[in-house]
Amino acid sequence: MKKLGFFDKFFLLIILGLPVILLAESEKELSLLEPPMDEFIDSLMNKMTLEEKLGQLAQYAGGGSLGFNTRIDDEKKELVRRGKVGSFLHVLGADFLYGLQKIAVEESRLGIPLIFGLDVVHGLKTIFPVPLASACSFEPEAVERAARIAAIEAAACGIHWTFAPMVDIALDPRWGRIVEGAGEDPYLGAAMAKAQVEGYQGDDLSFENTILACPKHYVAYGAAEGGRDYNSAEVSRRTLYEVYLPPFLAAVKAGAGSLMNGFNDINGEPMAGNKELLTDVLRGKWGFEGFVVSDWNSIAELMNHGVAEDRVDAGKKALSAGIDMDMTSGIFGEEILKSVKKDEISEALVDKAVRRILEAKYKLGLFDDPFQYCKAEVEKSVILKEEHIGFAKEMACKSIVLLKNEDGILPLARDPKKIAVIGPLANDSYTPLGSWKACGEEKDVVTVLEGIRNAVSEETEVLYAEGCETSGDDKGGFEEAVRVASQADVVVLVLGESADMSGEARSRSEIDLPGVQEELAKEILNTGTKVVVILMNGRPLAIPYLAENVPAILETWFLGIQSGNAIADVLFGVYNPGGKLAVTIPRSVGQIPCFYYHKKTGRPATEDATRHSARYFDLPVSPLYPFGHGLSYTEFKYSKLKIKNKKVKANGSLELSFSLKNKGKVSGSEVVQLYVRDVVASIAPPVKKLAGFKRIYLAKGEEKEIKVEMPVNLMAFYNKDMKKVVEPGEIKIMIGSSSEDIRLDDSFIVEGKETEIDGAEIYYSNIYTKK
């Protein structure tokens, strides 16, 4: 039974008229009279004026800027007192937000609490790997725990709501925001979306250490033409439903309490005004019960799109389409007020949006205790806890991908006489924080140079040279870098992008190493010293020269505050890397879009095909590194594939097993990947698609039986009538270490007739080790 809080007492005293003395004397008994949510909100809305209702739909930025603020100007405070604000974003701090909340609940007429939002994308103060890196862990349980820690820290700082996870599928690495998502695959994206929503929201949103999740940017924002942020998306309905919508469906089914629309238009219809997707699909077909917030000023931008005449028209279109809260444009105020009074829009439509927002506040426990998130003593006790920092390092280790390891050059010995750490990112304490670093600070970051110094023996001399900057054409540091490299037994060369080269509004026309970094690499290689490259970047980089000439390459993305320690652990073999690429790495920008689940075409591209095939004549068919690729310091053997039921019906499950053995001399992990292909279908199928994965940890010499239960409904696709169906016929099963490294294969038969399935359901394979 929930304890009676401030608003419970307020309801009983003011609305029901029960005496406060009785409340104080018999709180336990009166808690039985606590009204259900619907009844409570009905009573509250009956007291609200139209202006106060519209106030709940308005969100403003703290300080009026994009930065995180501990100030609100007097004008906005006055709006709070008048009940004309429902939420603030980019505000922070338990004490500060306590004071702001106090204005709302004690100085406004109805005392409705505010909801405070912040972009807590991969940590609040304890910064974890960026989402693209975390997805390379292929370990949703770890991703969920990272989100849980982020929620604990954010809630302690007064935050109720994060604008995360970003679940946009991205097939174009030129797009800067690819760094914020889980890469190219809808199945992996769905699994990561589910994990993050559950991590942020926990088991009960009313707990003071949970925050409301907000999957974004609904939908196909990652399909921006040319990889240019905010650009239009031309996407077929089939591709929309099979590729871009599944991660959002997974987030909704995981209980996401809110959702944010994208800036983009889809086939000419801006998402801020797209009723079909915001209402008919999201609420009608999927049953979403949360509220939708616009992205920053996107309602006003309907005018820029050319679909709204003015602010009034933009507001009407957005509210009618299904947007509930207006982020920063201020349109859901005076403009909607005018529209309702002129009977151009109904108050009932306003009421639906208001109710959804009040329900979220109720579920967060804000009507029970509006100050439960604003406790300075909790804030001090949980930020950067040792446990949090420890898991940040573990998560960083899990996210590292070993791209190449020629002749087993890695792991390095921990006691070389001299090791040179070279490169523009080697001692950079800002870049590892990545895009959307929330409250992460450089002082908490362990750089690669520091991590290596922490790891090597006292007898080892660690040399350092910057060599060059990440961008620009200055080669003034080359000479010193070559001198340092020539003295060393091994060079760790840290190259890539600075943090501000990826993220929002950070699209690039080229995806190679910026500046003169490749030239620096050539100079260092010419010394003859053994070289290991560490890549630090927010998108896949086309690095054909490095791939051909450098013996060992680690893809580390942006790993957060424990970056240097995690990289050092992998370099020196303390941790055996097991991450896999969540996104394909192309050979050049001209190979884009480059993703593994392409169609076969009528003239399939193969390396030995004639020029009359679907390929570039001046590039190999294969990518530089495929989806799912990632090496280990040990070797895994796949064997003994057994399919229990070779004939299965739609709505049934395929059951199979195989053996996985660690043949090497060290313990390690392998991400087993299950791919499927419809051999013949009414719509041309992809060459393969991911249908399951599991990261398996094995001691040296250990062998385990891996069991798989795959719902046959994972084979469903949208047919020519846009019905989601499973068709009878042969299905190819492929199990391997990457999308191209298939170790086992077989097939099974789907029996019966074509079966339509519910498009509002999401399916996952269950892969586990036999007890």
Architecture blueprint of SSEs:
Blueprint: H1 6-15, H2 20-25, H3 27-30, H4 37-47, H5 50-56, E1 58-61, H6 74-81, E2 87-89, H7 94-107, E3 115-118, H8 131-135, H9 140-156, E4 161-162, H10 186-201, H11 237-244, H12 246-253, E5 258-260, E6 265-266, E7 269-270, H13 275-285, E8 291-293, H14 302-305, H15 311-321, E9 326-327, H16 334-341, H17 347-363, H18 376-382, H19 386-399, E10 401-405, E11 418-422, H20 448-455, E12 461-465, H21 478-487, E13 490-496, H22 517-525, E14 530-536, H23 544-549, E15 552-555, H24 563-571, E16 636-643, E17 647-649, E18 653-662, E19 668-678, E20 689-698, E21 703-711, E22 717-718, E23 724-726, E24 729-736, E25 742-751, E26 755-756, E27 766-769
Parallel strand pairs: 1-2, 1-9, 2-3, 3-4, 5-8, 11-12, 11-13, 13-14, 14-15, 17-25
Antiparallel strand pairs: 6-7, 10-15, 16-18, 18-21, 19-20, 19-24, 21-27, 22-23, 23-26, 24-25
Helix pairs in contact: 4-17, 5-17, 9-10, 9-18, 9-19, 10-12, 15-16, 19-24, 20-24
Summarize this entry quickly.
This protein is of the alpha/beta class. The model is unreliable at 15-32 (pLDDT under 50).
Helix-strand makeup class: alpha/beta
Low-confidence stretches: 15-32
| End-to-end CA span | 39 Å
> How large a portion of the residues is in β-strands, by DSSP E?
15-25%
Integer-rounded radius of gyration: 27 Å
Q: Enumerate how many helices there are, as a single number.
A: 24
Total count of strands:
27
**Strand arrangement, largest sheet?**
10-15-14-13-11-12
From the spread of the alpha carbons, the general shape counts as globular
Helix content: 25-40%
Largest sheet: 6 strands, mixed
The average pLDDT value, as a whole number, equals 94
